[in-house]
Amino acid sequence: MAAPIERLLSEICESEEPIEELKNLRTAVLATPVSGLREVVSGARLGIIFGLLNTNDIEQIEVCVEILNRVLQALEPIQLVQNYRAALQSGLNHPDDSVKVLTLAQIGRVVGHADGVTQILNSAEILCDVIHCISVEHIAVAKEAIAALGKLSNTKAGLDALFRSDLLNKLKDVMTTSDIIRYRVYELIVDVSTVSPVSLGYCANSSLISQLLEELTGDDVLVRATAIEMITSLAQSQHGRQYLSQQGIMEKISNMMIAAESDPFSSLYLPGLVKFFGSLAIVDSPQQVCEKYPIFLEVVFKMALNLDPTLTPVALDTLGILGGTVEGKQVLHKTGEKFISVLKRISTVAFDGATELRVRCLDALAQLLTLPVEQQTDDLLMLTESWFNCLSSQPMVMIRNISTQPFPELHCSALRIFTAIGCQPWGQQLMMDTPGFVEWVMDRSVGTGKEAKDCKYELVGVLLSSSSTQRIFGGENYLKLKTYLKEGPYNVTAVSSVTTEEAD
Questions:
Q1: Could you give the CA distance from residue 178 to residue 197 in angstroms, rounded to a whole number?
Q2: How remote is the C-alpha of 495 from its chain's centroid?
Q3: What is the DSSP string of 327-396?
């Protein structure tokens, strides 16, 4: 395909209005494997396409961007920056956002390359323009700029360039554009900080992290909510958590949760505070977090009980994630009747609440009741059994009734609860003691749609993962389950129909 592409490039060069030739070239390059384009891009004529971006014709720009998106994949990053440095800088300042996105994506390739990053570091103007792109209104442009600068910061030379040169002042200047742009820069800083302790050190010394932390107690509750989200991301790394702890941020957020009770606007930022501690509990230790900051569970329980449409879903998700671990289950169990009251409330909403909230309740219950075979001890099995039994006077019937309602999302969420208890001996015994339940499990006509069939198949798989299944279900049912699993979730039994005519 190299020759036809060369010919098309020649035709484009000679044409005053090359839109049709450009469309033909687009067809040709999209039909050519990237490996086959390497010969083409090695020539100097690629500059023709870059040149044709300098127009007010939207269609021409669109076609040129599609061509370059494809062709530049065949160009080595070092070749790109060496041969088309001017074109890259021009692209960063182009009025059309699609050209900026294209250019930033290519710069991202360059700074991700060992030799390419050195070339870019020698181009302060290009890096200044990349930083400026963070302030462009179109979010796709800003995202590409943040991604490129993030890759740049993966090297010490890149960190030095961004945080120990005039580029840092450029970054701070861009932050003054608006609240939205300031938080885009914070996003970059958090992304860089989570890479390593060294990267975090650079960001901390720039004063930008301390500026972010100060936003926690700002007057604007929306800004505060965004700051909490950023800080939660920073807490995902161990060195990030250590830094936040040294800065007293955990205590500050705990105090914010205490003060939120008297703040009429707390619903705007309280979910973020809960997510912070929920995330902290999972990556660290549920027991340590809940014991050190008791307000966390206290607030989560209140949110779950109050049925606030803004707060309750976050509480349900948090309880599900927390109770999905053995340590988290034990922490919840230690709260005694407080958690039992929450469980009963969740069960009530799961049965007769709004559909979306019912799904969240059922999913949370499934996580709380899940206990893989390798984690099953007598104490933990007694715990999950007691939780299940407190859902209602007849929990099996209740969940089964929910699963038969004509809402696919409810059907699948109810099935996930049966899957959660399916490998636990007490759960299997309840299934056997519930009339028609085993037959219902193996009835493929129950529940239509791919997701429903997949959920049923997962339930059968979990049942067969337990060594107690054959004993409790009996040999015949056990073999039927194995057959079901072998046949797969979408097996359809063919039924032949024969028409017989009676002779007169």
A1: 29
A2: 44
A3: HHHHHHHHTTHHHHHHHHHHHHHHHHS-HHHHHHHHHHHHHHH---GGG--HHHHHHHHHHHHTS-SSHH
Does pTM surpass 0.90? no
Q: Could you give the CA distance from residue 327 to residue 333 in angstroms, rounded to a whole number?
A: 10
Q: Taking residues 420-432, what's their average pLDDT? A: 95
Angle between helices 19-30 and 2-14 in degrees, nearest 10: 160
Two tokens, residue 60: 């021409």
User: Cβ contacts of residue 9 below 8 Å, gap of 6+?
Assistant: 25, 40, 45, 48
Chain centre distance of CA 209: 24
> Can you read off the two tokens belonging to residue 492?
């359809």
Mean pLDDT of the region 48-61? 92
CA distance 206 to 411: 52
What is the DSSP annotation of 454-491? Answer: HHHHHHHHHHHTSTTHHHHH-HHHHHHHHHHHHH-TT-
The pLDDT tens digits for 269-324 are: 999 999 999 999 998 889 999 999 999 999 999 999 987 888 899 999 999 999 99
Handedness of CA 255, 259, 261, 263 (dihedral sign): negative
